[in-house]
Amino acid sequence: MSTLATSTSADSFEITRTDTPVPDAQREAALAAPKFGTVFTDHMARISYAQDTGWTNRRVEKYGPLQMDPATAVLHYAQEIFEGLKAYRHPDGSVWTFRPQANAARFAKSAHRLALPQLSETDFLGAIQALVATDVAWVPGGEETSLYLRPFMYASETFLGVRPSLEAEFLVIASPVGPYFAGGVRPVDIWVAEDYHRAGAGGTGDAKCGGNYAASLLPQQEAYAKGFEQVCFLDASTNTYLEELGGMNVCVVYADGSVATPPVSGSILEGVTRSSILRLLADAGHEVFERPIPLADLKAGLADGSVSEVFACGTAAVMTPIGRLAGEGFDLSVRDGTAGPVTTTIRAELTDIQYGRAADRHGWLHRLA
Ligand SMILES: Cc1ncc(COP(=O)(O)O)c(C=O)c1O
Q: Do 215 and 291 lie in a common domain?
């Protein structure tokens, strides 16, 4: 557990507080019933980049609209990346985040793939820390609530040529969020897409860039229309192996207690939740495999009982049991649509660490305020 340093990289941010913050009563009402990504805090952190000056003007300023020239590069060629992590309030009132160094490293990897400038871990963490310290009153304290942090970077040069932008903006915005599913952990129904792919070999599947999500929206919309909540994508080369959901990784639990998840081989986003869960599973004595999972094997395992649970995992919903898996020509129920014991136990272990109810034995927490 890293402690709050007296002097941090957040000190290099110039803080200009808004003189029109959301009134206390309105903020408290928003914190009492937060909805994902709908309400934002009073401020945003920001750093600007130009090729000849590098990253300059580290600041925290009033949250508000960005002014953009219609020829700004990101609007045309989608040169954009983002991250998602959460700030958790602990019982003693302190505020912590979870493995932010992993998000900083993934952000750097995404920046490289999208030909955007590299931002240091120091600036990534400093921006988060400066924003959360300024808007600390916005970190909710209710069960399964948190302040969702959204760092992002976009190509800000006014130029229509197809080449990497010479200018970029990095921002962090924050939104109080509640439990992802009302009424606790609820299994979701998944449609396996065989006619659309999220990413291909050599593409941007292992980068967190907006374009990947744009490509997943139509399949998601079609799955919704069929009555499913999320889509599971297969590999683009052979249409054989499970890859991941539009915004979560996927894991399979077997009746012998072992757990498998697809390897991060370039087209899958390497989830921070995924690797944390694999560690907790191994700690608890489960055999853990990162190996290709043919859809045919999963279908057979669900039919003969050798697969006992399937779950999705990511920052937003932590761990989500999958209760039904269907696709063209098949429709299988998982545990009759109930959450399994491995999913439920590991989920509780992970959230106990995040919310400061259990010892942080892996040093995953980073204090923000
Ligand atoms: C495509 C995709 N896969 C997996 C994940 C899970 O990643 P993490 O656990 O770091 O939130 C996310 C969420 O960020 C995602 O968008």
A: yes
Q: Establish if 83 belongs to a structural domain.
A: yes
Q: Does one domain contain both 246 and 134? A: no
Q: Say if ligand 1 is within 6 A of residue 215 CB.
A: no
Please give, one letter per residue, the 3-state secondary structure of 150-195: EEEEEECCECCCCCCCCEEEEEEEEEEECCCCCCCCCCEEEEEECC
Q: Whole-angstrom Cα distance, residue 238 to residue 207?
A: 21
What is the 316 CA–ligand 1 centroid distance (Å)?
A: 8
- Give the Å distance between the CA of 357 and the centre of ligand 1: 24
100 and 20 part of one domain = yes
CA-proximal residue: ligand 1, atom 15 (nearest): 247
Do 292 and 256 fall into the same domain?
yes
List the domain range (segments joined by +) for residue 56: 7-178+357-367
CA gap 172, 153 in Å, rounded: 9
Please tell me if the CB atom of residue 248 comes closer than 6 angstroms to any atom of ligand 1. yes
CATH number reported for the structural domain that contains residue 362 in this entry: 3.30.470.10
Q: What is the residue with the minimal CA distance to atom 4 of ligand 1?
A: 248
**Residue 224 and residue 309 share a domain:** yes
pLDDT tens, N- to C-terminus, the chain (369 residues):
444 444 568 899 999 999 999 999 999 999 998 888 899 999 999 999 999 999 999 999 999 999 999 999 999 999 999 999 999 999 999 999 999 999 999 999 999 999 999 999 999 999 999 999 999 999 999 989 999 999 999 999 999 999 999 999 999 999 999 877 665 678 999 999 999 999 999 999 999 999 999 999 999 999 999 999 999 999 999 999 999 999 999 999 999 999 999 999 899 999 999 999 999 999 999 999 999 999 999 999 999 999 999 999 999 989 999 999 999 999 999 998 899 999 999 999 999 999 999 999 999 999 999
For residue 212, the CA-to-ligand 1 centroid distance in Å is 12
Element (H, E) at 256: none
Report how far ligand 1's centroid is from the alpha carbon of 269 (Å).
6
Rounded CA-CA distance 71/92 in Å is 49
Q: Are residues 159 and 198 in the same domain?
A: no
260 phi/psi in degrees, rounded to 5: -130, 150
Query: Does 242 lie in the same domain as 303?
Result: yes
- Are 102 and 208 within one domain? no
